[in-house]
Design a protein that fits this description.
The strands form eight sheets. The chain has a five-stranded mixed sheet with strand order 2-1-3-4-5, sandwiched between helices. A four-stranded mixed sheet has the order 14-18-19-20. A three-stranded antiparallel sheet has the order 15-16-17. The relative contact order is 0.05. About 1% of the residues have low confidence. A hairpin with a 5-residue loop joins β18 and β19. By secondary structure, it is of the alpha+beta class. The protein is built from 25 helices and 23 strands. The chain folds into five domains: 152 residues, Resolvase, N-terminal catalytic domain (Rossmann fold, 3-Layer(aba) Sandwich); 130 residues, Hect, E3 ligase catalytic domain fold (Alpha-Beta Complex); 90 residues; 56 residues, no CATH class; 60 residues, Orthogonal Bundle (Multidrug-efflux Transporter Regulator, Chain: A, Domain 2), CATH 1.10.1660. InterPro entries: DNA_bind_recomb_sf (IPR038109), DNA_bind_recombinase_dom (IPR011109), Resolv_N (IPR006119), Resolvase-like_N_sf (IPR036162), SSR_resolvase (IPR050639), Zn_ribbon_recom_dom (IPR025827). This is Recombinase family protein. GO terms for molecular function: DNA binding; DNA strand exchange activity. Keywords: Coiled coil.
Amino acid sequence: MTESAILRPPKITERHVNQLVVVYVRQSTLQQLEEHQESTRRQYALAKRARRWGWSDDQILTIDDDLGTSGASIKGRQGLQKLMQEVRCGHVGLILALELSRYARCCLDWYRLLELCAQYDTLIAENDVVYEPCDPNDRMLLGVKATMSETELHIMKQRLEDGKLAKAKRGELVFDVPRGYVWSVDEEIIKDPDAQVRRVIELIFEVFERRRTIGGVCRYLEAHDIKLPHRRDSFGHLAHLGPLEWHKATNSAVSNLLRHPIYAGAYVYGRRQRPSNAGFGSRGEPGRVRVDQGQWLVLLKANHPAYIDWKTYERNVEQLEDNKPAVKGYAQNGQALLGGLVLCGGCGWRMSLHYKDPQTWRYECENYKTKAKDGCRSFSGMSLDELIETLVLQALEPAAIEMSLRVIEEAEKEREKLRELWEQKLERARYRAQRAFEQYDAVDPRNRLVAQTLEDRWQEALEEEERIRRDYARQKAEWQMPLPGEQAEEIRRLAQDLPALWHAEETLPKERQEIVRAIVDEIHAQVEGETERLRVKVHWAGGDRTAAIVQRPVQSWKQLSYYDELVDRISRLFEAGKSDAQISERLNEQGYRTAEARPFTRAALTSLRYNLGLKRAQSSKPTDLLNLAEDEWTTDQLAERLQMPRASLYNWIRSQKVNAEKRAAQKRKIWVITADQAELQRLEALREQGTSR
């Protein structure tokens, strides 16, 4: 018996030694791999133990693909998957690790490996202890240790989370801060020391206050060539600030900036949390999801210098939520005024907007389509929009002058802020050019390899400075100059005539929508049965309520709530001998409308009268009043007799090819043509002659 046979555990037989031994090496994180190197060395040293137990060097397989990978899940662990594949092929007699937790900290993954080892009679070793998965006692012990490993992982995570939470509650937990902020040397959050960075952040909040959408902010920044600041490799600490870069504004970047409470001076921890069902025993590392403000773990207001106050932050977040299409929505380019503002009076759901064509749209409740609830309807939106338009203009009229003056003042302030921002960009470009020159000037001119590179950098900096200077000049030319007194007075005059300004071609539908959203919170609308009556309740931003009834278009006259009354009124006026024009005028004066919710016209009244069976006596035709002789013909009669177009007959009359004269009949003059039998034969020949040509 060899010495190795004496030293190795009795469970290891010659059959196991004739197969491979796998040394499995794993560290949970890259930080542990860097800081806890002794543990890694001990795991690699297990190969020596395999040699003492009788394995040769060419039989020892070390798998270290999982260095820096957590054992919480098999996902992403190439090393463990490789190990299981080797066992499945029947090549492995023993797998060796420093401790069982190296294999897996999830019972499901552990038992998968355990079943493979039992099936192919592969031993599992932990340091000097060897387990035989086929043995019931060893199998039970391995199961207990697997449960302990999984529980230990949960306890360690919970301990770390509790420590971070305790530190965060004191406002001392350091994390990466977003653009516009850095950590001071005293571990306090302060604004970025760069003035241009601060100015861009302030400008974003100011623009959002006016435009109210993320897309509007991005378009504004792009139009004025304004980019977002980004410090690379700085970790947000003043002691080691990375180089400042400028990136194009994106919707996600602007959204994160507007939603982050740090800009309101609040220290926050736990805005994103793992779902409650992703705790102990979950598979892998579940992603964190955003939670409501009431569920944040830490919220310390007025903790550091702020760009906006807390009320402005809450108002911005509320606006962003309202901008979602499924909620209130935001101003769009369609003609409809109230998209996202109308709520169904039957069920309270927000009604969707549907266009039939650019000038025709409907508001529709989702429950109306599914027939899930009674009282939910779909109705044409033009009448409702006209009502709200009237109410909004009435509400805005007292503040028109003040609004116009404020627009003038805000326009000048915005120009001044943009000038300041461009001056800062130009100053930064000058600094870079000057620094590049100083570096070039300081180099030994004989060192041409370095001097040439520095000269190129200096030239690039000069070109960049010149480009910014040209762009700045172009922007100044595009900006409007301060409004002179005559233009300001013109704006005041237009503001007094709000309806004209509202309906002006220069006023975009989106601008009207934004005005409505600024003063209207929501509108509840409910149809009375199948009638034309639409009950409307307007909820204004200040808390006031306005109730009204508007007529919507319906498909049938009989759907009108006043149909019987309308029929009776038309019948009385008809019996009184009134004409259709007189009846329609009288109905409009009394407030009656058609089924399409429009004023009555003569044609509409005539159509309805015929449907009601109210017909006037037929009057004689003018031609019936003519006492024609036997050889006298009207143009219609003669054209039919000769079987020719009436237009050709009129040409004969103008060219005097026929004997014709005009006679009066019912205040009209009608052509009468004299043609006996001989004349008819002549005209027929003339017709044939014209046809042959």
